[in-house]
């Protein structure tokens, strides 16, 4: 592998994986980032926390997230390239994570909306009723400006790891749907057209067995807002994904899968994100090395570029070696996931092997 491969996400992927599917798409996507995307990303980051426009001129609640206009162009670029729809065309997760790697090299925050949108589409396609799928899945798979976004909202004010204890959102049956009441305290991609939400069925036990997974639309059937955004978090990073506090008040939602499968479906959703976290971390580490290598090749000391001095040269060799090892671990977790993501409870032994490796990959990357 040449050190020059570190300078390009597509070149690095090719060096580590060999022949890539959709290689021309990846090259075109990277070229767009170099020509336009990097500048848009830097502008969004410098602009700080996006604004929340809560009311329109007539005082009606709208909860609109306000970014610079170029942000939406940057965001839609990945959806159009296929970070969601290609999964269902190929029946493989690999295309989404390849595009996600390139995205995260340039803007790891932007990879979050793509990940949670995929993590909405997958359980909807697997566990939604025929009617719910027919209504809500096609907009997530669109390839034009009208594409919908998804979100995954589990965390409440008590925390996000111990869901069995801290999920207080209650789901009450109401005909062919449920009405959810509660709050989600760290809701990434707030403003999405759809979200998958963890809630406790009315009267269910106060542990993980009482949880179920629901599909929550942005708007009720009557066209009114189905959830409201209390505020947008003022974050120090990942500003290209709006994270907020969401309030649910008799919000219409649709049960996904069997009620007793709830915690398993929730973990399926989170596992898609865990692998994406690992992939994004490697891409971000590669970007740091790429920037450092570019600088070291241009900085001259004692008559030659500093990267040619033995100590710094050795340091780069060590860091690239660690990058390669971490990539191998993360990609192996993805390869395992790609073989089991369509399984449903009860899972195979290979699925549990994937779960173990996914945790290790997230820890080490």
Could you report the average pLDDT, rounded to the nearest whole number?
96
Strand content: 15-25%
Described by strand count, sense and barrel closure, the largest sheet is:
5 strands, mixed, barrel
Topology, number of strands = 11
What would you say this structure looks like, in words?
The chain is an alpha+beta fold and 365 residues long. The chain folds into three domains: 3-140, Butyryl-Coa Dehydrogenase, subunit A, domain 1, CATH 1.10.540; 152-263, Beta Barrel (Butyryl-CoA Dehydrogenase, subunit A, domain 2); 270-364, Butyryl-CoA Dehydrogenase, subunit A, domain 3 (Up-down Bundle). Helix content is 51%, strand content 19%. It is built from eleven helices and eleven strands. A five-stranded mixed beta barrel has the order 4-5-9-7-6. Strands 1-2 form a two-stranded antiparallel sheet. The mean pLDDT is 96.
Highlighted features:
365 residues, alpha+beta, Butyryl-Coa Dehydrogenase, subunit A, domain 1, Butyryl-CoA Dehydrogenase, subunit A, domain 2, Butyryl-CoA Dehydrogenase, subunit A, domain 3, five-stranded mixed beta barrel, two-stranded antiparallel sheet, 51% helix, globular
What's the short version?
The protein is of the alpha+beta class. The protein has helices at residues 9-17, 23-47, 69-81, 85-90, 94-106, 108-127, 130-140, 163-166, 262-298, 310-340, 349-364; strands at residues 51-55, 61-66, 152-153, 170-174, 177-188, 194-201, 211-217, 228-232, 243-256, 300-301, 304-305. The chain folds into three domains: 3-140, Butyryl-Coa Dehydrogenase, subunit A, domain 1, CATH 1.10.540; 152-263, Butyryl-CoA Dehydrogenase, subunit A, domain 2, CATH 2.40.110; 270-364, Butyryl-CoA Dehydrogenase, subunit A, domain 3, CATH 1.20.140.
């Amino acid at each position: 592998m040449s050190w020059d491969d570190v300078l390009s996400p597509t070149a690095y992927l090719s060096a580590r994986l060999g022949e890539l599917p959709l290689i021309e798409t990846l090259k075109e996507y990277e070229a767009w980032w170099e020509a336009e995307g990097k500048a848009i990303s830097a502008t969004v980051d410098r602009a700080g926390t996006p604004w929340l426009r809560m009311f329109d001129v007539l005082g009606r609640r709208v909860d609109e997230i306000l970014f610079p206009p170029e942000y939406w162009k940057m965001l839609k670029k990945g959806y159009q390239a296929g970070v969601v729809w290609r999964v269902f065309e190929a029946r493989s997760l690999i295309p989404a994570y390849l595009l996600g790697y390139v995205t995260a090299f340039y803007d790891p925050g932007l990879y979050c909306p793509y990940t949670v949108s995929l993590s909405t589409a997958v359980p909807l396609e697997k566990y939604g009723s025929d009617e719910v799928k027919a209504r809500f899945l096609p907009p997530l798979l669109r390839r034009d400006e009208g594409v919908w976004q998804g979100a995954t909202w589990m965390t409440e004010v008590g925390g996000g790891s111990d869901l069995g204890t801290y999920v207080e959102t209650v789901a009450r049956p109401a005909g062919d749907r449920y009405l959810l009441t509660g709050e989600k305290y760290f809701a990434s991609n707030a403003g999405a057209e759809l979200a998958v939400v963890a809630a406790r069925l009315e009267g269910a036990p106060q542990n993980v067995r009482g949880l179920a997974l629901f599909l929550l639309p942005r708007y009720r059937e009557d066209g009114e807002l189905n959830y409201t955004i209390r505020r947008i978090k003022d974050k120090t990073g990942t500003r290209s994904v709006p994270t907020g506090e969401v309030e649910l008040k008799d919000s219409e939602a649709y049960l996904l899968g069997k009620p007793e499968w709830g915690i398993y479906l929730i973990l399926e959703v989170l596992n898609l994100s865990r692998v994406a976290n690992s992939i994004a971390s490697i891409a971000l580490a590669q970007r740091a090395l790429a920037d450092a290598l570019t600088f070291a090749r241009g900085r001259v000391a004692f008559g030659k570029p500093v990267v040619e001095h033995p100590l710094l040269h050795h340091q780069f060799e060590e860091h690239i070696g660690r990058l390669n090892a971490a990539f191998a671990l993360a990609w192996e977790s993805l390869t395992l996931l790609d073989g089991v993501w369509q399984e449903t409870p009860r899972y195979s032994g290979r699925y549990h092997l994937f779960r173990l490796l996914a945790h290790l990959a997230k820890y080490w990357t």
